Amino acid sequence: QIQLVQSGGGGVQPGGSLRVSCAASGFSFSDFGMHWVRQAPGKGLEWVAFIRFDGSHKSYADSVKGRFTISRDNSNNTVFLQMNSLRPEDTGVYYCAKDKERRQDEYFFDYWGQGTLVTVSS
Amino acid sequence: EIVLTQSPGTLSLSPGERATLSCTASLTVRGGYFAWYQQKPGQSPRLLIHGASSRATGIPDRFSGSGSGTDFTLTISRLEPEDFALYYCQQYSRSPPTFGQGTKVEF
Questions:
Q1: Which chain B positions have a beta carbon within 8 Å of A100's beta carbon?
Q2: Inter-chain touch A44–B33, beta carbons under 8 Å
Q3: In this complex, do B45 and A61 lie within 8 Å of one another by their Cβ atoms?
Q4: Are B47 and A114 in contact (CB < 8 Å)?
Q5: Does A47 contact chain B (CB < 8 Å)?
Q6: What is the arithmetic mean of pLDDT over B79-103?
């Protein structure tokens, strides 16, 4: 069955950096785009970043552009989110999520990771 | 970006009743590129509907989606105990993809 297992995250001071990872299994990882979506405490969902199935295209929410970098390692079925210059408003649960359609940039999500809490506080 | 507004904020119903959730977009959502998700406390969201009206794999047929343009609806024909949760709409017609603020269906 399809699984997305996240790791990383934790607490960091404002201005610091963190990396979260998402290991995929149960599907042909190199054929699907991957996303990061976050949820501030008690709030709704916010799309953060996307990477195309082959890594050739990346896109970001304006709120994280220039600070966050999405990447993937298709040989190890893993997607990453490197977060730099973190701000308190970046606090929340970060989910990796799989694009539903094979080799198409669809921007909706049929499987989600379990979520990783990132806390930015002094 | 397209702003999605969900109504009502909270829907208080009983098992067996029909639930109708609405989502209105600030701009036309082209191509029916619209989805609905369910989220329970402490869990990740689950895809229910995509393409405005297509049920995702394994979703019971009591869930149905409809709508086009700027107005979309999720209907749960007869509420089961496990359906009491938070529901989000999402458009993926134009970047960035955006979500509504959520509707809580409570007993």
A1: 47, 50
A2: no
A3: no
A4: no
A5: yes
A6: 97
Nearest residue, CB atoms, B96 vs list A61, A95, A113? A61
The reply to whether residue B92 touches residue A108, judged by beta carbons under 8 angstroms, is yes
pLDDT tens track for A59-91: 999 999 999 999 999 999 999 999 999 999 999
- Of how many residues is chain A composed? 122
Dihedral sign computed on CA atoms, order B45, B50, B53, B58: negative
pLDDT digits (tens, 9 = 90+) for B20-55: 999 999 999 998 999 999 999 999 999 999 999 999
Three-state SS across chain B? CCCEEEECCEEECCCCCCEEEEEEEEEEEHHHCEEEEEECCCCCCEEEEECCCEECCCCCCCEEEEEEEEEEEEEECCCCHHHCCEEEEEECCCCCCEECCCEEEEC
CA distance A53 to chain B (A): 18
Find all residues with CB under 8 Å of B58, minimum gap 6, and list them: none
- Owner of token pair 């042909």: A28
Please give the structure tokens belonging to residue B70: 């700027």
Report residues of chain A scoring pLDDT below 70.
none
